[in-house]
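INPUT
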Amino acid sequence: MTASQSLEAVLSGLAADRATGALRVGRAGTVYLTRGRVSHVESPGTPGVEEMLVASGRLRPATVRGVRQSAGELADGGERLVRQGLLTRGELQFCVLGATLDAAFFVLAAAGARTRFRPDDRHWIGDQWYFDVAGLFRECRRRRDRLDQVCPSPELDTRPVAPVPRVPAQRVVLTAVQWELLRHADGAATPADLARRLGRPVYAVLLAVRQLGAAGLLSEPEAAPDPPPGTDRGGPAATRAKKGPDAPPLPVRTRTGPRPAPAGDPADLTDIGVLIRLRDALERL
Amino acid sequence: MLDIEDCLREILAIPGALDALAVEDIGGAAIATGRGAGGFDAQATAQGLCRAFHATLDALGPASPHGTVRVEDAIVTADQGLHLVRPLDTPLTGPVLLYVRLDRDRANLALARHRLRELSGRLITT
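OUTPUT
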């Protein structure tokens, strides 16, 4: 399979052959097929099933790891989780299809990536839900169009999320995801970083960021306020802002250090940073 | 414990149920349909339901005394039936809408709401 052949053509071919296996799409991720239907999509840029199971607070990391290892090539990890009574099949299905739709949004948009198909390779969680190839492409295109309908500013997808210091209105109505974003945005974290921090799908965060942008609640990069005296946070905002529109649509994981604290943790350092900056800003008024 | 398709089958077994649909409420995709009498366009219905549901939330937030709103279900009485939408949102499932259209003459709204609440609970209870 050459790079010039479009991913859609490759996947449609595999669907027509009723193929079972894993199609690796460059570094963007992997599409798993079962008898020509998509059973799973994974991307390093979006939270996978494992992360969602843990981030939901339902399963401990060691439990998930253990099940994944014992599932191995049998690909019956999901089956085991359900059999052990750790979650319902409905929950597992929604979790897998949610992770798949989120990853597919980025993997299926990867243009020019080299693809490699490994027949009979299956995801450890097993088959929980199926998408037909054409339907999945259609859904991803619809999701992309929706972002632009909300706010035609693709640069918001990769730029650090910087809420305006003052709301340009008397009242603001927020969705739950928007609230979480505003609470965790520190002017340095990109939407992909925030998705990981919040345990939310990246697409849900992109949509909320575009909505905030359309509502005029995000700062333009050049209008970003100077860091308050005494706080050293020079680097990340400036360097990450350079990613710009040329960056691939895939939100690459940028943090390699320890995972940020989960959303509800009272000792979350990010929040303390926000609070300090908020206090400084209020004192300057 | 139910899986998605069992859940839709059970929803269609509610007295007076005509059509049923499960919608993923991030992108607004129809996930599964119950085979009802209707022959409706599931994708278009899913997208419309999401828009209508979000618009309802947008309106009810400001209309509520404290400015926040948590909708348990939404009911629309229309010429072609009773439309019932129930949101389900857990950290594991993400936001989901369960939808059923009911025959106005045959359905008992209170019973249908009760059944839909129970069935959405069984989706997420082991």
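end of record. The mean pLDDT of chain B is 93.
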